Amino acid sequence: MRTEFGVRCSGAEPVIYELGKPGRVATTLPALDVPEAAPLPAQLLRDGVDLPEVSELDLVRHYVRLSQLNWAIDIGFYPLGSCTMKYNPKVNEAAARLPGFAQTHPYQPEHTVQGNLLLMFELQEMLKEIGGFAGVTLQPCAGAQGELSGVLMMRAYQLDRGENQRTRIIVPDAAHGTNPATTTMSGLQVVEAPSDERGNVDLEALRAICDDTVCGMMLTNPNTLGLFDEHLPAIVDLVHGCGGLMYGDGANMNAIMGIVRPGDLGFDVMHFNLHKTFSTPHGGGGPGAGPVGVCEKLVDFLPGPLVAMCHHSEDACGCGCEDEECAEESVSFHLVMPEKSIGRVKAFYGNFGVLVRAYAYIRTLGAAGLRAASEMAVLNANYLKARMQGILPISHDRTHMHEFVAMGIIDGAPDIKALDISKRLIDYGFHPSSNYFPLIVHEALMIEPTETESKETLDAFAEAMAAIRQEALTDPELLRTAPHSAPLRRLDEVRAAREPVLRWKG
Amino acid sequence: MTYLPHTDSDRAEMLEAAGVERVEDLFRDVPEACRFPELRLPEPLSEMELLAELRAMSEENQDADHFPCFLGAGAYHHYVPRVVDAIISRSEFYTAYTPYQPEVSQGTLQSIFEYQSMICALTGMEVANASHYDGATATAEAVIMALNVARGKRGRVLLSPTLHPEYRAVVRTYAQGTGIQIAGDDARPDLTVPPALPPLDKETACVVVQYPDFLGQVQDLGQLAEQVHAVGALLVVAADPVSLGLLQAPGHLGADIVVGEGQAFGNGLSFGGPYLGIFACRERDVRKMAGRLVGETVDVEGRRGYVLTLATREQHIRRDKATSNICTNEALCALAAAVHLAALGRSGVRKLAELCYHKSHFAASQVAQLPDYHVYDARPFVQEFVVRCPAPVADINAYLLDEWGIIGGYDLARDYPHLPNHMLLCVTEVIRREEIDVLVRGLEDAAKEVAR
């Protein structure tokens, strides 16, 4: 189980510029097959671009060696809380690379891209069903952009009703940083709602906040403590009761597929993270995709274009399409902009390549498979939490959902921090959990195993944690100076920020 | 069950350890009335069935591999060397997360640092990041950054009417809650003279132009930069990176922020995404920049390494006072772009731009000889140019596709009502001379058949 990291390489890969030599090149281009045109005016022309000059083999070796300096899901356990580092199926990669998908231009006439539009339409429908929503937009490129879309829609809805005074968004203290940042970007103000002792939103505090200046509330449920809020119906009633809308941060949707539909719980709008819940690769931080689902009253405000299906057998085809090609088919798909749309959030139509992968995942699992995935994600988390008893304290003594938060506090080892435990985990062949988040837990270690990990992996992780706890008591220096087996030891982040070197200068 | 490793005995042991009898018991906090809904989804497919279904779906499309495609307008068909896919298909890269733990993420971190360096070289700027989703959102974030550089004291943003229409739309979406004034893009662009700016004043935070512009034309940025800087505003340039193989770098002409669509390098068309937002600025403004940045440092043994840095700008630290809510770094797309740029190298990036330049000029000269068409070629262009056609572009394109197997150019009447029958044609290195000849013959026929 334990993976020896850093055996293959000892770090210190040169910067690609340092590998180059003038005159080398790593690809070929076709010869010019037309007459040369008159050159551009000299004042518009530049000197050469300072790029590396390497051979193809040097290029490949450089990037393969760099790849070997990375941890990745395909190497081993990656229990980053809130990130849902589940297996990324290989068939999904093949699907996104099918030439008919990968080589289509976004401005081709609609009748030449009916396959793409069909896939997008079906994905919209499936996400509506999974989330319990009346409408879905596939436009947003990431969770944070889904949040921006959602909050702008809430704002637009309130303005449309003449409720111009609704400028406040309630955000719990346990929330991801993107929630308050999104609120500010949308021109609204954040009101923070505290959590109670059981990790729920504090109902009394929330009641005091709710008034006619509230545009809505952003709530992650299950929350960042991995807990399903026990007062959820009461929270929804309070916010709706004062005229506000409920925004669901779908970051933790992996706990509840087929378990409960956020729309049924009263959420008016929610983003999905296809790169978390629906298995599309994180790619080192991107690209992702953040589709947004909404209830009936927000459908007209969705960012577009959306994909609409029209039946030509019916008398009136709602799409306004005058395309002859389309009239010949019994069913066709079109891009449409909702009536009161907040507008576009990106060029073109969403991160299509990511959408293909998520579509493939949902079609592979089906309804029963999605529910089984969430059930096992939750069982894995609760099992690992049980195995952690007596090793590290857990933030709340409740049944958890897909993740839980441990605390990096060891009696008898007062100098040991969550960070030291994280770094020592690397030596045991595991990626650390998320640390120092959520902010409301002291020395937080947020652990999300996901459903694709086996019992053996979880057992090995718990055993590593137990061994680290023992080391903390007998040889704390081993933790404070960890990692010892990674390509590099701890890096000087203060220096990086004080004297920024942000590009290669030779 | 698919992708799940648990055996029945595993489940039994785990349930016992977790202190519950059945897995359903773990969900008692979920309101009972809506617990365990029946999801109406299609039946699951095996891998073989799935791929067959998806292949059939993909083949309902007509793609740029099978039909010569003369569309550009913000998404460009370039040849992506095989080495790019070989590298980005390494799962050490694509199944990694944001490099929060630098000791085990040097591959991602160094590749982003190298990408930052190459983008600085290409744009002539001092700092670049790999954090933005696409050219449109990078432009919107540049506008927000310019407002922040002015510390909220300037509330006016001028957009060129020849900035990509969808980029202008995204700027408006992002700005709708901020109360700023967006102007300048209601002017009708003239295809024979450079666009004039509305009056600049002390309220103006920034001017945003595209280079080459949406109509393919190249304007003198140096003169513009002087005008913009004279009132203390910033010049934001949305640049096409392939054209920068040939054109003066915007950073050398006075641009303060350079953004752009990075798709052309290493990332396929993919029906509009995922793409890559280029974002570069001056060192003096770096603390107002949105997105992840990678910086060089050393480890405790003094060895060179890389970390995410200057994070105090970002949402996970600053929350409601962050420069943006962005937490993506578009690492895999940036990796693809970096591998393509490094494969081309100093000479290749120039040659690529020259191929596009000569081929598009050859196409323009051939179309210009057709009596029913007018080519606007008085102003310099690199790979896109405008043609006035004898009939609506949609009709001509339908004819070209049906009769000649060609995907024609972009219909400018979609965005510019005063330019009916105007087509924006793009010719890159993937188009062969024979295909240009077919385009010209097709257009010639279309004049007779469609415009009758």
SSE arrangement of chain A, N to C: HHHHHEHEHEHEHEHEEEHEHEHEEHHH
Strand order of the largest sheet of chain B: 1-7-6-5-4-2-3
Low-confidence stretches of chain B: none
User: Runs of chain A with pLDDT <50, length 5+?
Assistant: 1-9
Give the tally of β-strands of chain A.
12
Give the integer mean of the pLDDT values of chain B: 96
Count helical runs of chain B: 12
Structural key phrases:
heterodimer; A: 506 residues; Aspartate Aminotransferase, domain 1; seven-stranded mixed beta sheet; three-stranded antiparallel beta sheet; 16 helices; 34% helix; disordered N terminus; B: 452 residues; alpha/beta; Aspartate Aminotransferase, domain 2; 2 domains; four-stranded antiparallel beta sheet; globular
Sequence-ordered SSE layout with sheet pairings:
The complex is a heterodimer of chains A (506) and B (452).
Chain A: H1 16-19, H2 56-67, H3 90-96, H4 99-102, H5 114-131, E1 135-137, H6 143-160, E2 168-172, H7 178-185, E3 189-193, H8 203-209, E4 214-220, H9 232-241, E5 245-250, H10 262-265, E6 269-272, E7 292-294, E8 306-311, H11 324-328, E9 331-336, H12 352-387, E10 404-407, H13 418-427, E11 434-435, E12 444-447, H14 455-474, H15 476-480, H16 493-498
Parallel strand pairs in A: 2-3, 2-4, 4-5, 5-6
Antiparallel strand pairs in A: 1-7, 6-7, 8-9, 10-12, 11-12
Helix pairs in contact in A: 3-12, 5-12, 6-7, 12-14
Chain B: H1 8-18, H2 47-58, H3 82-88, H4 91-94, H5 106-123, E1 127-132, H6 135-149, E2 156-159, H7 165-175, E3 181-183, E4 204-211, H8 221-230, E5 234-239, E6 257-261, E7 277-281, E8 293-298, E9 304-309, H9 315-318, H10 331-368, E10 374-376, E11 384-388, H11 393-404, E12 410-411, E13 422-426, H12 433-449
Parallel strand pairs in B: 2-3, 2-4, 4-5, 5-6
Antiparallel strand pairs in B: 1-7, 6-7, 8-9, 10-11, 11-13, 12-13
Helix pairs in contact in B: 3-10, 5-10, 6-7, 10-12, 11-12
